[in-house]
Amino acid sequence: MRLNDCTDMEERLHGALDLSGVWRLAGSDGQRGGVRTFHLADTDDAKWMEASVPGEVHLELIKRGLIEEPTEGLNALSGRWVEESIWAYRKTFSAPEAAVEGCAWLVFEGLDYEGHIYLNEERIGEHANFYRPCKLDVTGKLREENLLVVVLNGGLHAAGNRSVEGYYENSYDHVLHKRIWLRKPQSSFGWDWSARYVNVGIHKPARLEWAATARVDDIVVLTDLNERMDEGAVSVRVFLEGCADLPAEAEVTVRVNGGAAASSVHPVRKGQQRLDAAAAVPNPRLWWPSGHGEQPLYEIEVEVKVNGSVICRRVKRAGFRRLAINQDPHPAGGRYFVLEVNGKPVFAKGANFIPADMLFIRADRARYEGLIDRALEANFNFLRVWGGGVYESDDFYELCDERGVMVWQDFMFACAAYPTTEPAFMRNVKEEAIYNVRRLAHHPSLVMYCGNNENQWHTNRWDEEASESVMYPDYAFYHHVLPRIVREEDPGRYYQPSSPYSPDDLHPNDDSAGDQHPWTVGFDNTDFREYRSLTCRFPNEGGILGPTSLPAMHASLPDPHREVLSFAWQQHDNAVDSWYAQSAPDRQIREWTGLEPRGLSIEEHVYYGGLVQGEGLREYIDNFRRRMFDSASAIFWMFNDCWPATRSWTIVDYYLNRTPSFYPVKRAFQPVSVVVVREAGLVRIFGINETGETWRGELHGGLFTLGGDYVKELRSTVEVPANTSRCVAEFDADAWDAAGIADTLAFASLSQGGETVARGRLIVPRFREMNWPQAQIDVRMDGGHAVFTSSAFAFGVCIDLDGDLPLSDNFFDLWPGMPHRIAWPSGRKPPQVLYVGNSIGDRQARTAAAPAGRS
């Protein structure tokens, strides 16, 4: 299949042949299998299997039953031999006469990982970067019939003789895989939330290109908006490779939404060059984040002619918006860090995005659509693409453009010191950065670039802890090389060297400036009440572990492993469980509920663990939202999973099911919200209004006992201005102390026209320290709603542990005597209450006697 629609005359001038489709695949462990003969035409065809390009070796072996699905049970362990082997893909193809006689290139959009490429038994090039294409000049090397062979290893062979001595290491297995030398997803070598599963294959399309005069290597579209936001500009950069010494002329034409054309003409010279063109767009419609406006996108059509013949026509969608990071001095010290879109401060609500599958090629558009749907369902407007994974697919960014999800883009460096003092490595990563900035520059959802994840923080720690002199092998790369690349390739876009990062020579994780990763809570310390006092300017990581959905649990734990702490449980558990002498995630459940986690059933583990995680994430979000814009984000770790886990940081699991913590996060991120805090001897109630208009309604707040008595009530009409958080009421905390903090909650609700808009409450002790009454819950149907009531306070009412169906609410509270209505389709079976948190007291007594490690 040709990629360009050419006439016969044009075909002789330029063209492309798709080489994707059916190839042959063979492997070797170094002894068995013919590594030295893979590239030869004379081969034993019986030893080769059919394979797909784009493709991945594990997937081919799964198809043939040679290995099992790695996400389930213990299969990730039994498939590790694949990453230790060497693999070869081969294909024969016919080349057109124009390609044989003219200039020609082989283009592999994605090789994973170290590739040695052979054409007609001749080695024509190498490539070692997952994140950028491999492009090889094969002019004069083609025949009418050709044999193409690509020999690959997953990276372990490529890095085997490299040293990691003197570099920052964050795991004991680093000396084995030496991931810092490998430009492929770092998380594939294992992370706390992922198993090691080193991919290998030709994971993107391949093609042959040819040209008589010139070929287009890349097209970049940039948009800009004047200060008045009434005049837009489109700048187009065409990267052209001239392949002949003959005089030639190139014309670049730009059309915006099919409107009038703007053109520029350039002489073509042999070799690489950049051709520029521009078009004005008067009064463009502005692109806004979700919840703040619409997301209009403009079609930018770019056509390139050489000597009057069209050699390339491409369409990209772009948007117009002004972006700024307000880092003005803060009156309390340090600096603000406020994202401003079109001159408006926007509070960033969201989480960190990690690869959507441990087999990266399986993350297709449908999967990304499901993930973006879940993010918007949880009231997100922001995702941070974390630096230990991948520069995401075009599908991801296109969907974020369409749906108004802002993207923070890390460059792919994480939790390590990288060897950029080695010249070949530096050239490799510079080319990777240039390619990806050019690829992403037109997306309006992309709001900022960041050099790495936590490397500067670790450099500081490394310096402080080192007893001898230390190297800083990659510091200049983040502070000198990358900012220059961004400035040249995507001018005007914000860049910072690391995350977390604080300017003015402050500690990288200083709370008073820049962005923060508030991990003082979440690992060994599980007391998430400490979130209530954090004053971070732009919290960008921080989280609490909890279980995934029940189906994800079952996939992790096939029979006979379906019990807490089975061997399969340990393989699918978060590695934080192993960071301390005794399990911190287990202790989290004990400290908050008083229950012995190893005496719980799998279902109970999902409920009680999910109840704790949801409360922790709600505390994180509530604290920062009520401080807006002293704090300008609530971005937690993390959003999604790459495989099913028993415990993870996520609110959406591998199967796109909503984990138990999903609903508390969704409520906390509502556009209009209410937060109750206790500080300086007062109970204070904050109204949060993210909408574009002043919110007016009724406030009901005060104190009620768990048993059902309202010991203090206040009611008033309140106003919360647009895009603000403000204290709308307060009262002395003495009344709460008098009523008993183990028996009483502070509460607040906002309503309009008799309909509840938002609810908030505050529990001061740990949950196990509360005097929980029994809760008798009544459920009745009322048209398209289910109505729940209880005379006593009911904590964390659970009606579903599967998370596969969208519910308007789950893991919700019932306030004494107050009905709680949730939408419920009339044809669906009425909801059933599965668990309620008031049972913590009863379960404490029962699980204390249960044998540890059994379900």
Give me a quick take on this structure:
The protein is α+β, with helices and mostly antiparallel strands and 855 residues long. The chain has 18 helices and 42 strands. The relative contact order is 0.08.
Primary descriptors:
glycosidase; 18 helices; six-stranded parallel sheet; alpha+beta; disordered N terminus; 855 residues; hydrolase; Jelly Rolls; beta-mannosidase activity; Immunoglobulin-like; six-stranded antiparallel sheet; TIM Barrel; Beta-mannosidase B
Radius of gyration over all CA atoms, rounded: 29 Å
CATH topology of the largest domain: TIM Barrel
Domain module tally: 5
Helix count equals 18
CATH C-level of the largest domain? Alpha Beta
Main sheet makeup: 6 strands, antiparallel
> Could you give the distance between the termini?
57 Å
Structural class: alpha+beta
Keywords: Glycosidase, Hydrolase
Organism: Cohnella rhizosphaerae
Domain Beta-mannosidase-like galactose-binding: 40-204
Region (Disordered): 493-517
